[in-house]
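Lab notes, practical 5.
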Amino acid sequence: MDQDGTDLFGAAWGGETVPAASSGVVPPLAVRMRPRGLQEVRGQAEVLRPGSPLRRLVEGSGGAAGPLSAILWGPPGTGKTTLAHLVATAEDREFVELSAVTAGVKDVRSVMDGAARTRDLYGRQTVLFLDEIHRFTKAQQDALLPGVENRQVVLVAATTENPSFSVIAPLLSRSMLVTLVPLTDTEVADVLTSAVVDERGLAGRYVLAEDARDHLVRLAGGDARRALTYLEAAAGVAEDALAAGAPRPDAVEVTLAQTEQAVAHAAVRYDRTGDQHYDVASALIKAMRGSDVDAALHYLARMLEAGEDPRFIARRIVIAASEDVGMGDPTALQTAVAAMHAVAQIGMPEARIILAQAVVHNALAPKSNAAYTGINEAIADVRSGRGGPVPLHLRGSGNGGSGRIAEASAAAVGKDRAPAYVYAHDEPDAVAAQQYLPDDLHGRTDYYRPTDRGFEARLQERWRWLRERLGRD
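Output from the prediction step:
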């Protein structure tokens, strides 16, 4: 509470000033600062470019056939709910919001019936915003199909999971899929700056210190909602820190220390260009590569305590498991991928345990970059123009004319006929001794060279035998 007895966040929102005394509960800062039009939206420039399907849907220009439904896929805080509200405001549409966590088939059918009445009586279209559609069962998603098919409603569904796996195919085929991306640091900083001065937000009653803003931007991890939530909490701490009985300054400064206190994270000092952010991430990778498990855990802890997005850390661990461990211990990649999926489902603080397990596995595992160097060398050859036509006997047989093409190709190189393809499983050892590489690479290329470390050491004998069997040595 401010010293005059009014709520310190009782600023304007939604176009009106709503003090706590008249409304009882003031909406969170993230709700008050929800963009009222496309001009206030930060981020998503690609999917909102002029003429794009999503922009046309927001602007109400869906074409003669009417507006399409949309499935918005992206991480939290990227604007899924905001865009749904903007779609609803176009052409004075009716807006209904359901959460797949609590809604069922009965709720969906009730919305469809209400949409039909609104259309018939008032000529208004209904926008149904369904949050977390991935939580709907197949039967519940099936209930949406008639309304979407007949455009009885404009469905705007939000999901943080890949719709290809979580949304039924008939619903996907009737909707446009829009992929949203995390906001950049600059865009998150713009969101915070606007919230500090906007009448719907903090209305200029606070000044956010530059290092505090940078800390909030980094903690947000591209999530605008998280950034605003943390800002609101930090402003509350700053307000509480004012001396009792002293006059309140026109603008209370929100410091880094107060921001840290509000979000319970110690600030790791990153410079403006973010170099130290990448330095710590690089140190984690190099510590795992160097098999120093204690150093790896130290850098993991620094990243977590700095508020780094655990999903970012998990992705780096997956890359390291393949690039640096590889076939030295193939199970490291399995652990890392499992950790990445588990982190996405569980979140912090428990995600720290899962990440630690994956880091320890990577650090202790025998190392091999043979697969990494192998693909790099193969790509370099392809880019330099090496690699002639695919050998005749390996070419696809799906085309009815492929046999004639193969014979013509054989004649062109002075052969009576194309060599017959040998099916590997017909051979006693399931290895067909025939040429697989193009002519200019056959016998002169060994992209993959196994090391003598870990599991890969056990592959060396078979690798040598296979090269001899295939005539590569």
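Observations recorded by the TA: The two ends are 81 Å apart (CA to CA). The chain is about 50% helix and 10% strand.
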